[in-house]
Amino acid sequence: MQNGLKLTESDESITFKRGDFQIMVYANKSKAVGEFIMQSDIGFQLDTSKTVVSQLTTGAALCNLWNKYFIDAQIEGIHENKEIISAHRMYYRQNIENFLDACIDTADMDKNTLFEVNDLAEQANPRAVIDALFALFEKIGETNEDAPKIQDIQRDVQQKSINKEETEIYRDELEAPAEKEPERRERTPAVEPEPEPEVAEEHEQEAEEEPAQPVEKTEQPKGEKSPFVGLVQRWATETATAVVNKAMVTVQNTDKEDIKREAKKFLANLLALPTEVLVTFFILVLLLLVLRAPAEEAVVEN
Fold first, then answer.
1. 258 & 142 share domain
2. Which of 160, 151, 175, 136 has its CA nearest to residue 51?
3. Structural domain contains residue 129
4. Can you give the residue range of the structural domain that contains 236?
5. Which of 83, 81, 78 is nearest to 65 (CA)?
6. How many domains does the chain have?
7. What global pTM score does this model have?
8. What angle do CA 14, 17, 19 make, to 5 degrees?
């Protein structure tokens, strides 16, 4: 067909679109990896209703496979109890880490060609897992005569048709990580850590020992004048009083003619002053009269 690849089985025909061709290639490669593990006689049984990667997530099968072909570099402490592994995820992560370390140290596998722990444990990158295992199995076939040949297995798998159900499960495996990726990137809202119990108790004791200090109010009591008004009144009173006292002393020490001359001279000098000064002077005199009136009334009442 022009827009796809057509594979025919004895009882049905399936048409693959262009996008499905990559799924088919990945599925065939995955099945070849699974067949290699099965033919290695380590007790691994492949379930065709599931993907190969999903059946290797505990890492136990890979460790047992390694021990079969690398007798001089055994992986010890393999966690195989399914109940314990399912309850404690760190165990199968440890299996995978041990397998990857062995591949680097003994099989001379390039770290860049291998996969990360989460790629298998969380199925975050199943394609990377299959590619790395396929490369490892090629090396095993070259160095071990008793090992199956992965290329022959792949050839046999390709000759068999792939059904629609297998296509869908491998499609879901490849597409699932892309759908889950945004969830992995989401950040948990920052929460301030609670203080440790000892620190919290110390703060509580300090709060009990130190009484709360009352807040002083700066409101001005009713009936009292502000400091600014009092300052102006005091300054006006002192200035006006000084002027009056000086005038009284001048009157006592001079006769009438002198008083007249001094008065004319005073008025002439006063009128010669700038308007702003004259206004200020008369305001001070008025303030003096206004301030003295309440004082005289208070004296009379007493």
1. no
2. 175
3. yes
4. 227-301
5. 78
6. 2
7. 0.54
8. 130
Assess if residue 197 is contained within a domain: no
- Separation between Cα atoms, residue 258 and residue 254, nearest integer Å: 6
Is 186 contained in some domain?
Answer: no
14 with 142, same domain: the answer is yes
Contacts of 220 (CB under 8 A, 6+ apart): 226
What DSSP assignment string belongs to the chain? Answer: --SEEEEE-SS-EEEEEHHHHHHHHHHHHHHHHHHHHHHTTSS----TTS-TGGGSTTSHHHHHHHHHH-TTSPPPS----HHHHHH-HHHHHHHHHHHHHHHHHTS---GGGS--HHHHHS-S-HHHHHHHHHHHHHHHHHH-TTSPPHHHHHHHHHHS---HHHHHHHHHHHHHHHHHHHHHH--PPP-PPPPPHHHHHHHHHHHHHSPPPPPPP-PPPTTPPPHHHHHHHHHHHHHHHHHHHHHHHHHHTS-HHHHHHHHHHHHHHHHHS-HHHHHHHHHHHHHHHHHHHHHHHHHHH-
- What Cα–Cα distance (Å) separates residue 217 from each residue in 145, 186, 221, 230? 96, 50, 10, 21
Looking at the structure, do residues 92 and 18 belong to the same domain, yes or no?
A: yes
pLDDT digits (tens, 9 = 90+) for 80-115: 877 666 667 788 899 999 999 999 999 999 999 999
User: Does one domain contain both 64 and 147?
Assistant: yes
Name residue 263's amino acid.
A
pLDDT per residue as tens digits for the range 1-52: 434 444 444 434 444 555 678 888 999 999 999 999 999 999 999 898 999 9
End-to-end, the C-alpha distance of the chain in Å comes to 124
